[in-house]
Amino acid sequence: MAFFSAVIPRLCLSAFTIMQPLLVDKITTYAALPETPETRNKGYGLIAASGIVYLGIAVSTAFYSRQTYQFIISIRGSLLATIYAQTLKRRSGEMCTDTAITLMGTDVERISTSLRDIHEIWASPIDIGLALWLLERQLAVSCLMPVILSLACISMIIKVSKSKNRAQRAWIAKVELRIHATRQALSSIKSLKVLGLCNRVEEVIAGFRSTEIATSRKFRSLIFWEVLISSFPWLAAPAASFTLFTIISFATKDYSLNSSQAFTALSLMTLITMPVWTFIQTLPAIVQCLGSFTRIQDYIGVHSSSNKVLVESERGDSSITDERTIIECRNAFIRWEPSGCDMLYGINLSVPRGSFAAIMGPIGSGKTLLLETVLGETVVSSGRVSVYPMPIAYCAQTPWLVDTSVRGNIVDPLNFEPEWYRHVLWMCCLAEDVEALPEKDLTRIGGQGFMLSGGQKQRLALARAVYSGCEMVVLDDIFSGLDAANINKICERLLDRHKGYLRCRDITVILSTHNAKVAGLADDVFILKEGTAATYKPSASSTPSSGHQTSFPNDNEFKSRPASPEQQASQFVDAEASSDDNALDFKQTVSLPAKDRSVYLYYLKSAGLGLSILYIVLVLVFAFSQNFSTLWLKWWSDASTESPNSAHWMYLGVFIALGLGAVIIGAASSWYILSLSTWYDLQDNNRLQDLPSSYDIQHCTTSTSIHAKTTFTVYAPLFWLSEANSGDILNRFNQDLELTDMTLPLAAINTTKGMLSDEALGACLLKMIILFVVANYMSLTVPPLLIVCYFLQRYYLRTSRQVRLLSIETKAPLYQHLSETLSGVSTIRAFRRQQWFERNNLLFVDDSQKCVYTLFMIQQWLTLAMDLLACGLVVLLMILIVFSRDSFDSGSSGTAIVTLMSFTQSLARLLKFWSLTESCLGAVSRIKTFAETVPSEAQSKHSDADSSFSMHEKVTWPSQGAIELVNVVAAYRSHPVLKSVSMHIEPGDKVAICGRSGSGKSSLVLCLGGLLPIQSGTVQIDGVDLSNVCSEDILKRLSVVPQDPCFLPGTIRLNIDPDEALSEAALEGVLKATHLSAIVQNMGGLDAELEPGLWSAGQGQLMALARAMARRSRILILDEAMGRVDAATQSLMERIVASHFNDCTILSIVHRYENISAFDKIALFEDGVLVEFDRPESLLSQETRFRALYTSSQN
């Protein structure tokens, strides 16, 4: 019904519009009559008729636009909700993670833009038919010229539309690749900064951007032809029609062309060609819209996550043979993708209800694959896997956390029980960590737990699983990042056979691990090797025991514990009414909009001021050529009336020249602005002077310039990135660039010069000048007109600036929510919380819809106000014509009324596209504010901070590897994480950094890389004070293996040798040393695109070590690099470190102490304080804290 509600207002608009040429005919005829009382009465009637017609146009336009926008808003909301709902249903293995983001950010917005003129598809033919019938009465057979031109252009535009749709799909595919690379980089930005790869990341993303721009050129060229073809009937129809009319007049010896005939015909041609232009423009837009609908349909049409993983049905026809069995595999062959290869073969196993099963095996053996199979996220190609239907508390190998508080990541979205919550913190060893945070459990952790250590993130995910109360818990290698003390406590409190909470409550636990001691607690151990599974039952004696009894609450102590997820799914609590620790509490920060003038200047500078001025000159010349033809037609008709045989060919020649000139100049300026984003500016070489030196861009395109300033994010400090809204950042790379790339250039064409119709700023100005020439007294309206316009724009802009920014910024939570859902869709489905996440998404959709619709209505209010102003001008002109008969002849009246009629149409179109331009300027304003306010760690690149640090030293430094910290105090924001740390490390020393999770070990690494602000003290490497060296320069000269695998978007070669320092032979040697040769060959070789999902965590760590070998720095930092690998891989990595880095200084963060004697020194941290720093034999021979920690780990 929303679609059909606009039909009646649109028909009324057609009726009032078609009355305009009839009104012109009556006015020009009236102006030629002598003044009598009878004609004076006719004049009064024409004044009233003019008011009624133009008031009707204003009101019907307002109602029509309102109903159309309501329809667009309903479509937009439905699409956003449908895309998200389908995302929750699609199996994680079959999703391209960024397709949904592209659909939501690009396709939905293009659909919204394309549907603005949807009703013109049926209304335009009606308008054309009525106007053609009236034109035939004026020009006879000459009326066919606009029809012939229109039909020819429509046939051409249909062919262009087909190619344009294909070109658009190709462009969007490249946009999707760029967004995927950007999202991948943003999700790993902390590790990338530690690795010193910010510059490389910027180059990689810029490469994707360049490819995208190159691909877009075909689409832009087709847009140009679409613009030219659609404007040709408008510009050429008057010249063609009057040419044919003159030829026929010459043949019939009838040379009369009176004013009434000329201006009525001209107004009718306007009414024919305007709907033709609208139809030609709308048709490709609808085709483009259908292309976006097709992409969305393809996405939502894919089957959901159901596959051959079976569940016991409600009817009881279970395929599980034993009632006590909760999981059963029968000769199962399992793969990740339907088109992939089986990775597990003939798996036979069963897990009884309430038991604890452990899964072990070497890296890449399929442990995660088997766990994901239990969740229904993989493909069982043959055999059977049966799982009892229930919510499953799942902890992924890479913890899935959302950008909210610690409490928000643990507690159930619909319920919060303080006592149970505190007990969960204690069981998961989080109580001390929470107390140490600045705002306790309300501290915001950043995207993917940016502010937390690896061990803290894993314990936080574990706490969520325990708090949920699910009857099955699946844990994927959650102990890899934990120290021995925390592992022992968690095992005792949760997994101990006799007193562990999960075991005492008969909760089924399935855990993958490399830790044999943890596996010894299990009832069954499934060992995976070479795609098969073997079952092993540990003996009861292998269970560690303790001298004290762990205290657990009985069943009655927590009667108010959260309801089950199925019960919760039937409830709904408004997220806005929840507490601040709601699981998805996104804080919106609306940036103040920049002044429009500065935004215009910012965009023009990005394009190059010289070429922008040239474009403005072309616009003015075009506007003159287009609008002077109306005044020329008056002179022609006046000359024909006075002397029918006078210089018809001369007048016709100039009339044709003006039309052709408008076509040529309009085409040139349109090609310029559409190509502005892909042309190289040879004039402005200093456009990016505010960027770091890595942007060594001498000639830069507009799109590249704006994108480069946005990519500046990678140089922001860690503290800023930890607080930034990741959805807002992604919104700038997605929505904002979409607006500046395509929508803004098209809107600028319409707004500034009117190539697409007579609706531009230049056209409006020229029409007003012509109007004042032929109607002198109308110039008296200029002062009051300017005053009215001033107050209108002042009243309008004060609101619209904020609302247009809100309309863009309220999309950021949508993208962040979707991005986090894509990262954790397996976890969400396992917990069976899809309904809550879907409803929460609807809240974000509603917030976005309110702002978008409000902006539409504000823009429509301005359109209505200007239409009413135009109505007043028409009435005022009619009053002047009626009461100042001596000042107006038939030609002057016709020129004035036709000019004013086209002025109102121009004004309506101008406001329509100005509103679109204004929305796009909101994106430019956000990018401008973003580029100016984001702090940078790279600013020192522009200055020689330390003249003593010579260029030679920059190349060879560090040459020895000596490290010294003196009374270092470092902090995130105002919270100290390193407190008066002093230590001296000799060149070649091997130092183990120890301590519980969150004690400051990783902060030490960030401090050495210059990524953590130092409040006091000094850090020196080889005698160079790091405060005088840019963090990027420091990190490029360190070899770091981070705790989590980190992948660059691009090829395998790029990921192993990002500095391009090794030859082909040297690269092969590195691959052989790390046992990655076979894996790389199976994935297509070094130049194949790297797919992170195909690399296990252990294989990713081997690649990180290979990257460190390729850089070959004098300092190697291992940030718990071996925590996620099995014993064999750990042994391999230790041998590589010993052989390839034997003469290097090594700092290794360790949680395993089996080989602690291999280190020269031990540094023990507690709560940011270096409490012990000595040789291992010295610390172990005395009563030290490290000895206690070592003894605890051995037990």
TrEMBL record:
Organism superkingdom: Eukaryota
Gene Ontology MF: a single term: ATP binding
Bias type Polar residues, positions: 538-554
Domain ABC transmembrane type-1: start-end pairs: 11-288, 613-919
Cellular component terms (Gene Ontology): plasma membrane
InterPro entries in the record: AAA+_ATPase (IPR003593), ABC1_TM_dom (IPR011527), ABC1_TM_sf (IPR036640), ABC_transporter-like_ATP-bd (IPR003439), ABC_transporter-like_CS (IPR017871), ABC_transporter_C-like (IPR050173), ABCC_6TM_D1 (IPR044746), ABCC_6TM_D2 (IPR044726)
Region (Disordered): 536-563
Entry keywords, A to Z: ATP-binding, Cell membrane, Glycoprotein, Membrane, Nucleotide-binding, Transmembrane, Transmembrane helix, Transport
Primary residence: membrane
Residue ranges annotated for the ABC transporter domain, each copy included: 327-555, 963-1192
Protein name in UniProt: Uncharacterized protein
Organism: Aspergillus niger
